[in-house]
Write a structure and sequence with these properties.
The structure is a single chain. This protein is an alpha/beta fold. It contains 13 helices and 14 strands. The strands form 3 sheets. A 7-stranded mixed beta sheet has the order 6-7-5-8-9-11-10, sandwiched between helices. A 4-stranded parallel beta sheet has the order 2-1-3-4, sandwiched between helices. Helix 10 links the parallel strand 8 and strand 9. Helix 4 packs antiparallel against helix 5.
């Protein structure tokens, strides 16, 4: 943005090292999927092993020569590392390889930039990109030098690098303020839903687990869904009707990925707030993925990082059509649903999923038979206004017998109002 770099292209050489110093290693196959999702064309995959990264170029001199040879042989225009590179390592590699070098974080940021559709999503992507770029600025040209003596040599008192940093800080400050405004608008929407007592169910899960396809099945929506990583970036909300519950807001969110950089988590917290405010999480899992357990662990890590690990969660094992197993509900020792097996593509098991969601949301529901005197018309009207009355009968003495069903919190609030007002 603020300095010249080699033009990037689509033909890419991929690099992955198994480092003994890493406790949690990246998945080379997942990295190739990330490159394909970004529109890249992997032409070579260089793999190796080291005890620790080289402080200057991350890889050793022999591996660096192998990467350079592969780049020349395939006429690649970019080299991508399945690791986080320091700014100096990235710059030294670009100088040695004479092409653009991108690390894992930069690649994820590029995918996010392609996927962002809403105003908020674009702001979040730009903020994350600017924060990533702020440590990678170099002086591309030096005509703005510190003041010197002589006519025509006096500059504004700062170098081009300092100018770039100042512009970056101003832009980051501006975007942060606009995101705070958008966040306040989202909070107003959440408060209005809370006042209307509408539960929120949020879909979470590893990227490409099938969340958007399942969202479309449950809501008859047409959210973009594709077999690629991070097909969904912006959150989408739809209202659905569930038996015995009424209206429920279903939220489709951005997918998680292993070792998601902290700056991305921070930048996308506004998007993930839909997850934080949910009454129930549907953890969508690609049941056919050999890395299923690892992906589930990574999702739990991100949920813990954003503070959503205490919210009730129902596991949804998706892509049942690839396993050739029947749809079913797995229950825990308490008899409550823990896992539902579904296929978002064929729709198999979605009715079971609805039943499980109703059961979990209704777990804290009150089903009572209420006797109301003729003078308690205010309480009767309040129950009807809340949609809590399932049936009503009148006795010969004028007493109404109502069968009601509503959330316990609403019941307690109603009883309190009745005690205070005597209806």
């Amino acid at each position: 943005m603020f300095f010249e770099r080699p033009e990037s292209g689509e033909r890419a050489v991929l690099v992955h090292l198994d480092l003994a110093s890493e406790t949690q290693r990246e998945d080379p196959m997942e990295f190739e999927e990330l490159v394909l999702s970004a529109g890249g064309d992997p032409v070579a995959y260089i793999m190796g092993a080291r005890t620790a990264p080289h402080p200057r170029t991350f890889v050793g001199s022999g591996k660096l020569a192998e990467i350079a040879a592969a780049k020349c042989a395939h006429e690649a225009e970019i080299v991508m590392f399945n690791h986080a590179l320091s700014p100096s390592q990235e710059r030294n590699l670009e100088r040695e390889l004479e092409c653009r070098v991108l690390d894992r974080t930069g690649l994820i940021l590029d995918i996010f930039a392609q996927r962002a559709r809403t105003h908020e999503g674009k702001l979040q992507v730009e903020l994350a990109q600017l924060e990533h770029m702020s440590t990678r600025l170099v002086r591309g040209w030096t005509h703005l030098e510190r003041q010197k003596g002589g006519i025509g040599l006096r500059g504004p008192g700062e170098t081009q690098l300092e100018t770039d940093r100042r512009l970056l800080r101003a832009r980051i400050k501006s975007i942060t303020a606009r995101l705070q405004k958008v966040g306040r608008q989202r909070e107003q929407g959440r408060r209005s839903r809370s006042r209307a007592e509408i539960p929120t169910v949020s879909l979470v899960g590893y990227t490409n687990a099938g969340k958007s396809s399942l969202f479309n099945q449950l809501t008859d929506a047409s959210v973009y869904a594709a077999d690629q990583l991070f097909a969904t970036l912006d959150p989408t909300l739809r209202r659905i009707q569930l038996a015995n519950i009424g209206p429920v807001v279903l939220a489709d969110t951005v997918g998680f990925i292993a070792h998601l950089p902290h700056r991305l988590v921070d930048a996308f917290k506004a998007t993930l707030e839909e997850t934080l405010r949910a009454h129930l999480l549907l953890h969508v899992v690609d049941a056919a993925d050999v890395e299923r357990d690892r992906n589930m662990y990574e999702v739990q890590e991100v949920l813990s990082e954003i503070g959503a690990d205490k919210i009730p969660c129902l596991q949804v094992f998706n892509k049942l059509d690839l396993l050739q197993q029947p749809a079913r509900i797995d229950r825990g020792e308490d008899g409550m649903p823990q896992r539902v097996w579904v296929s978002a593509v064929t729709g198999e098991g979605t009715e079971l999923l609805r039943e499980a969601v109703v059961e979990l949301l209704a777990h804290d529901m009150v089903a009572e038979e209420v006797l109301l005197e003729p003078a308690q018309g205010g309480l009767r009207a309040a129950l009807y206004e809340m949609g809590a009355v399932e049936s009503e009968e009148y006795g010969t003495d004028g007493v109404a017998r109502l069968c009601v069903r509503l959330p316990r919190a609403d019941w307690n609030r109603l009883m309190k109002r009745g005690a205070e007002a005597s209806w």
